[in-house]
């Protein structure tokens, strides 16, 4: 009986500690069946022991009855023992039935729990599937929305870029036009100022020249005047520049005739410098003030002859009133030309 009770307590402990789940339920079921089998074996063994005891007692009683000194009390004792044994067996069987019912009840309760849990799990699974489905569709929607926004944003960025480039180009064009306009205006204003200054300067120069005591002669757009002392070429050139003038530069026969008639004529011994030299390249005559090549020419016969290799300055001399190359160091009358 102690063995049976221990198994029962063990099983209850297992029941108490059993977690939910069909696998653990199967383990419990097997243990219950094992307890059932053990109980049946034990009861059967007790029954066999009892049968043996009853048989022995009967044999002993029969022997004593058949003997001369038969004893009725011994038989009664034996019958009482048998009865007690039967009662014990009945009690064990009843106890076993109680245990068995307890196990069955626990099994049923467990089955119900497991069933509820399985139902809950199924419901949960469905909910999870629903949630999963919802999440999937929401994710797809979100993804579609993102892609749509992405395309939209990319288009907007591209549009903004194009606009910026276009705007920049337009701004550049406008700025360029504006700049060119302002530049033209500035140039125009500047040239006007320059011309005004030039005009003022020319006026001042003319006023200055008119204040000189020298006799002034006008031809074309120039005023010519003769200094009152003789000088060599470079001194004469420098002095003319001090008056804002230069040695005469003859570009036409009319001008040449004017100079001959006005400053040389019949004046004996007069020699005047014109403003040309071939000092840089022998034979290549250049007007000093303008830097122009001498085109109009009125050389005397046999001139320029660069006599003795030293004649680099141009003169008109009294003896034939035509051009001659002469030494630059010779002192001559200085005539200055002033451009009006
Ligand atoms: Ca020469
Ligand atoms: Ca000469």
TrEMBL record:
<feature type="domain" description="C-type lectin">
    <location>
        <begin position="219"/>
        <end position="337"/>
    </location>
</feature>
<dbReference type="GO" id="GO:0030246">
    <property type="term" value="F:carbohydrate binding"/>
</dbReference>
<feature type="signal peptide">
    <location>
        <begin position="1"/>
        <end position="22"/>
    </location>
</feature>
<keyword id="KW-1015">Disulfide bond</keyword>
<dbReference type="GO" id="GO:0008083">
    <property type="term" value="F:growth factor activity"/>
</dbReference>
<dbReference type="InterPro" id="IPR051663">
    <property type="entry name" value="CLec_Tetranectin-domain"/>
</dbReference>
<protein>
    <recommendedName>
        <fullName>C-type lectin domain-containing protein</fullName>
    </recommendedName>
</protein>
<dbReference type="Pfam" id="PF00059">
    <property type="entry name" value="Lectin_C"/>
</dbReference>
<dbReference type="InterPro" id="IPR001304">
    <property type="entry name" value="C-type_lectin-like"/>
</dbReference>
<keyword id="KW-0964">Secreted</keyword>
<dbReference type="GO" id="GO:0005615">
    <property type="term" value="C:extracellular space"/>
</dbReference>
<keyword id="KW-0732">Signal</keyword>
<dbReference type="InterPro" id="IPR018378">
    <property type="entry name" value="C-type_lectin_CS"/>
</dbReference>
<dbReference type="InterPro" id="IPR016186">
    <property type="entry name" value="C-type_lectin-like/link_sf"/>
</dbReference>
<keyword id="KW-0175">Coiled coil</keyword>
<keyword id="KW-0430">Lectin</keyword>
<feature type="coiled-coil region">
    <location>
        <begin position="114"/>
        <end position="163"/>
    </location>
</feature>
<dbReference type="InterPro" id="IPR016187">
    <property type="entry name" value="CTDL_fold"/>
</dbReference>
